[in-house]
């Protein structure tokens, strides 16, 4: 049980466990967020990280202008990373 092959196998097992428990899910989540950011378009209804619902009315590379409320006078520029959920308008 003290052979070097046992310890090498044990270390490989620990690293494989860490990869499948910590690293791989994080990479999947990052890819999902990148796809979400790429799919954002003007007219989409969005949920921000602060919990506000709004509609995108203008976009640049890393910022969006979101219109909040029913009076259509509250327009706030924010970073795309603040968007956590996107709902496409019904066609």
From TrEMBL:
The chain crosses the membrane at residues 6-23. It is a single-pass membrane protein. Signal peptide: none annotated. Its main location: membrane. InterPro entries: Preprotein_translocase_YajC. It is found in: Cell membrane. Keywords: Cell membrane, Membrane, Protein transport, Translocation, Transmembrane, Transmembrane helix, Transport. The keyword Cytoplasm does not apply. The keyword Lipid metabolism does not apply. Belongs to the YajC family. This is Preprotein translocase subunit YajC. It comes from Enterocloster hominis (ex Liu et al. 2021). The lineage of its organism: Bacteria, Bacillati, Bacillota, Clostridia, Lachnospirales.
């Amino acid at each position: 049980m003290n052979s070097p092959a046992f310890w090498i196998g044990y270390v490989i097992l620990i690293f494989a466990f860490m990869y499948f428990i910590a690293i791989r899910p994080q990479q999947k989540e990052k890819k999902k967020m990148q796809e979400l950011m790429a799919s954002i378009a003007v007219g989409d209804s969005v949920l921000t990280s602060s919990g506000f619902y709004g509609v995108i009315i203008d976009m640049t590379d890393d910022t969006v202008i979101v219109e909040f409320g029913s009076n259509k006078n509250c327009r706030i520029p924010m970073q795309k990373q603040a968007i956590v959920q996107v709902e496409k308008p019904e066609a």
